[in-house]
Amino acid sequence: xxxxxxxxxxxxxxxxxxxxxxxxxxxxxxxxxxxxxxxxxxxxxxxxxxxxxxxxxxxxxxxxxxxxxxxxxxxxxxxxxxxxxxxxxx
Length: 90
Fold this sequence. Notes:
The chain is mainly alpha-helical and about 90 residues long. Helices cover about 45% and strands about 0% of the residues. It has helices at about 5-20, 55-60, 60-70, 80-90. The termini are far apart.
């Protein structure tokens, strides 16, 4: 059976991570928006929630690739994209 469209999943993720009252949310993360994420921004969801994008690129660039492909609003800024490309294709 086909799951909900990406926009519905994005909406659900936005609702979850924009709500500061969610149990277990100890780190203030940048919400999912169309604003590019910088190296210093924190991962807003998933198993690496709270880790900086720069650290995540170094640790698991495949996860970043998955996020870019799966979540349309997961966008890296220019500096983060350069670091990601160097790490991923090196």
